[in-house]
């Protein structure tokens, strides 16, 4: 049975108002969602367009970069949303490449201009949500709905002074990347004829367990099965605020690794903006957990129409991967840390999955 190709539309909209400005005729494109990170988009289109379309696109690229939203629609469903930040024309090839990042990239470009003090309040509903709401209320900003953020039951203490001017996106990333933290993502979807973007969180940050299986050699058309031990750590020191011997220091160790035969492996992380020991200790323990074992990082190319089909899994999910050859044979549970798609000039698709062993997400 012939494969039915998915229908794609690439929609440009006004970043602030949301109204659609153009449908971009990209000849090839790729996009990716990345766990707790902005994700990315890249699309290529011809420099020479029909006169009517040229009149629409010419005022937009590159003149309105940073003022536009870009959405990828697949068979009527929005599968990626974000902001185009760069355009790169190739006169010899007669093409232009547009590159963008997901919605977190906007918050990485916003600073906190107010003093914020949070005392024993929920890390998502009272801190992360409040930071985004503050950013969106401070001058013209893209509409991001935070009403669906769920509580984690994990209280945190955080203080940021206005004079520090911290980046709001980084604050949210750092808040999530501690022991007993959370996962987050931005989801764009059609709602009542308009595209709505929501900030969503999930807790615990160990992912949704699924029964989905990816078999190398069946729906997995190619696989890179690298393993990385460069982040191993038996001891982690986190250096916080303060100078010299009066500076804040949190030191944690993993005696289980030493007992199992690993040598002492040190790492030091800098967190000069952290003045609360519990926060610094949580950062150190989070780093220690990430270094508790070598991490296998399979990268899979998957036929999107084969079961499990594209759209039935999302970044953060826990899945089973099987197959390989000889010394590089897998049969275990892995977490999706990146989910993307490549679309070629003929409309052919290949789903791209980045995964990691569950050891990378366990607390020591």
Tell me what you see in this structure:
- By secondary structure, this protein is of the alpha+beta class.
- The chain has four domains: about 100 residues, no CATH class; about 100 residues, Phage tail protein beta-alpha-beta fold (3-Layer(bab) Sandwich); about 90 residues, Phage tail proteins - horseshoe like beta roll fold (Roll), CATH 2.30.300.10; about 55 residues.
- The protein is built from six helices and 20 strands.
- The strands form four sheets. Strands 1, 2, 3, 4, 5, 6, 7, 12, 13, 17, 18, 19 and 20 form a 13-stranded mixed β-sheet that branches.
- Helix 3 runs antiparallel to helix 4.
- The longest helix has 15 residues.
- The chain is globular, with a radius of gyration of 22 Å.
- The model has no long low-confidence stretch (mean pLDDT about 95).
